[in-house]
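Interim report, section 4.2 (structural modelling).
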Amino acid sequence: MLYYSIHLTNISKVHRKVGMAHWCTVFIKFNKVAIQVCGIVGVVSGKNISEKLLNGLSNLEYRGYDSVGMCFLNNGQLNIKKGVGRLEEVNKRINFLKFKGNAGLGHCRWSTHGGVTEKNAHPHTDCNNRISVVHNGIIENYSELKDELAKKGHKFSSQTDTEIIAHLIEDNLKGNAEEAVSAALSRVEGSYALGILFADEPELLIGAKNESPLIVGIGNNENFIASDVPSILSYTNKIIYLEDKEMVVLTKNRHKVIGIDRKEKKKKIHAINWSAEAAKKGGYKHFMLKEIYEQPSAIADTLNERLRNGSVSFEKEFRIPGDYLKSINRIIFVACGTSWHAALTGEFMIEELARIPVEVEYASEFRYRHPILDKKTLVIAISQSGETADTIAALKEAKKYGVQTLSICNVMGSSITRISDGVIYTRAGPEIGVASTKAFTTQLAVLYLLTILLSKIRKTLNEKQVRDMINGIRKVPLQLQSVLEEDKEILKCAELYYSKLNSIYLGRGVNFPIALEGALKLKEVSYVHAEGYPAAEMKHGPIALIDKSMPVVFIAPHDVYTYKKVLGNIEEVKARGGIIIAIATEGDKEIPKKADHTIFIPKNLYTLSSMLAIVPLQLLAYHIADKLGRDIDKPRNLAKSVVVE
Ligand code: AGP
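Predicted structure of the assembly:
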């Protein structure tokens, strides 16, 4: 078994590209939105760059896999090669490695419908093929700019908004490339991460960012730009995080960060201590499986140095004063998807133990609900990526009311962490698989720590109870190792039931969100329909679905309040011929008598059972998807970060 120890101090994994092509503007009129989520990489070097671009894009493919392209700057010429399909397929046709250049750009694109053509693939160029651009973002005023440029005689060869940028730079180019880029960008509205090369400037690479991710890598006799850190980690661990409306001007030996207004900026170079290996599959068949197995170390990292002297302390980014936490009378969580399920678990923990009323809102709903907020409400956003558009919008909405906001996030420097007043980082490390696994359990760990902190501040628990909670969570990383050892039994279930078309997940209390999350995992990666319910709700409707072909997954660890009731629910399913897969606490004698399969999790505090119980469900979803031959790390129709509302 692989057991990584990944220590993170700086992370940046912001994954998205939202581009909007001409056809997209047309579609919007019919209320259809085309979405692109893409990755970009660029390098200027003393050596040939084709291998670096290829390697960079292979690490960015999770962001987009409809089409790929590269630009090689060689002998004053821009050589652009691109095609529709996945990197591997396109590379088979083009063989990117055979092209030479000392500067280059790479791009991988993803769109939900239409417009996947070679012409629309990046890089794009100006009229004379002297400027090459890769882009991640939406140029909102692209239509006006296109009309204006067309009137001046610019000829467009694609339907993308990106191409406008190349022409706009061309239009502003009066000898100085840097000036031309800043003048062009001062006209652009919307979001962008850009990589730009000039045929007449063989030593120059320019990057720029606004609301889309772009980092700068400082190498040895070479410099990089990229959508995320892992894509260039094999070449450098020295990273500069660009802020919105900043540009970077790179040669192989120099870097300069300036504002779009051309004011020079002083930027810190961060030394990243992720290994490049951590961002790769490390021998596992899929990233999802690797990330499931990384959970013991991810949780250990998340706890590291935060549990001290019988209490919890967060880093300086936390920034929410203890006095304020004492004064709040309400917490509202905003989140989406898996992060929303984590928030539901947080609701259970905080209400039960810190005795603060909690509401959990879908971020997408919250922002249009004209929420009632006052200064005693703390709004907490949970997001793995920190780039989910709905969650960003919800946070911005909350801030209008002048409330304090806190984010729980995995990506250092991401949008959500910059918007919120305080941040607690989950230290899950890079999560590449589209289905969230270790991000979820580390979110639960952070929520548990936050609960301890709130309980201490508000004195809702005595010293012994706090000590027990701390001892409980300290056991989790090791206990998760033993849960992972149940994998054989889980694989057996997958082999028996992978062809079933539906399934139901049932849990209560802190494990009701785990039922929801288990069902979501199955849907996402295997495309098998699954529903999660509070176990007692079954009798109010879903029980009608039970027959001998329906697998029902019970999350039934021992607790004082509901365990016996859940046993009753198991009986009800059994009586109707359903297939029972149960997650039970080690030593449970009752459940194995009733269930077709029992997967044991170790004994710990009931609140912590959620963190242990989700892991078998992640594995179950994984194995079923694998049996069905699904594209597990890049399931159809999904993107790692959903950056459109
Ligand atoms: C998780 O498996 C999903 N891919 C998805 O529900 C995700 O949790 C959601 O889009 C929110 O993402 P975030 O945590 O990055 O904000």
